[in-house]
Specification:
This protein is mainly alpha-helical and 294 residues long. Helix content is 64%, strand content 2%. The longest helix has 28 residues.
């Protein structure tokens, strides 16, 4: 940290090392979305234990709609209605725009790589409605029979997952970043890169390990679970190597109290679209360099 920055930090009276944003609107959103974690876990557990995954098109979509929209969209809209920040300018709203945009492109295009490169399979016997890329991925003539088609419900499902991962990672990344304000710029960059890489790999690995369990593996599974956890997690972490530091920048104020740039909802859409394109390239590069893990 240079002298000017150190002086600014000292004059601000801030103690190094904090979890939540200095932007009050963003800090509220971060705390709110972290509280979504137990809701997310309980909802998924109940759905799996009650056998509600064995449903047709309508209920398959509705159950995943209910996992995301009531808590992540309707509840913050109600709770923040008198915050003084218009809904479309609020962090919670732009965060949802970002996640839904990112997940849409990733599910429509990127999941085809998960089918062919990582051995992901979906099987919902009562579902007949699908929505995914026509040209990317397996042969459309046999894709359904080989469990390589995407039900629309998986778009809604993935948004909830990504809300959890990105909410937790941003808070962790900030904590590490603000613990070392006085070290050299090079060391701070190395610590930042290491933090992003560790959190990216953890969430990529943890989703596979904890989500694809006995309660769901007849519907969602990997052809070779062991290789997915080891090699496949390296491929999956490419998503988060790009998106974690990108979403961190949204409406972020620095340690010394300087206000960061406030994103618009349209910018959140464009940033997420750009990130998804970069990740698509990285997935293709992984397929080109390493090839299928199965």
């Amino acid at each position: 940290m240079n002298t000017a920055a150190a002086s600014a930090t000292a004059s601000s009276g801030r103690i190094p090392g904090y979890w939540f944003s200095r932007n009050p609107d963003k800090a509220w959103g971060e705390k709110f979305f972290l509280l979504f974690l137990p809701v997310f876990i309980v909802f998924n557990t109940v759905v799996q234990q009650m056998g509600w995954l064995d449903t047709g098109n309508f209920w398959n979509i509705v159950q995943n709609f209910l996992m995301w929209v009531p808590y992540c969209l309707l509840l913050p809209w109600w709770l923040r209605r008198n915050s003084g920040v218009p809904a479309v300018e609020s962090y919670w709203f732009k965060y949802n725009v970002y996640m839904s945009t990112y997940v849409f492109w990733a599910t429509y295009f990127h999941t085809e790589y998960f089918f062919q490169i990582l051995g992901l399979r979906y099987h919902f016997p009562e579902v007949t409605l699908y929505f995914d890329s026509f040209l990317l991925g397996p042969d459309e003539a046999t894709a359904r029979e080989t469990f390589q088609k995407i039900p629309p419900s998986m778009y809604l499902n993935a948004i909830a997952f990504f809300v959890v991962y990105h909410s937790a990672s941003v808070v962790i990344m900030r904590r590490v970043r603000t613990l070392t304000p006085n070290v050299s710029p090079l060391l701070r960059k190395l610590l930042w890169a290491l933090t992003v890489a560790v959190t990216a790999f953890f969430f990529a690995w943890a989703e596979t390990f904890f989500y694809v369990n006995e309660g769901i593996k007849q519907h969602v599974w990997y052809v070779d679970m062991a290789r997915m956890l080891s090699i496949g997690s390296v491929c999956y972490m490419l998503y988060f190597l790009v998106s974690f530091p990108n979403i961190y920048r949204m409406d972020e104020d620095d340690f010394a109290g300087a206000q960061g740039e406030r994103w618009s909802a349209s910018r959140a859409f464009m940033e997420a679209s750009a990130v998804s394109m970069i990740v698509l390239f990285l997935l293709d590069l992984f397929a080109w360099v390493y090839g299928p893990i199965i």
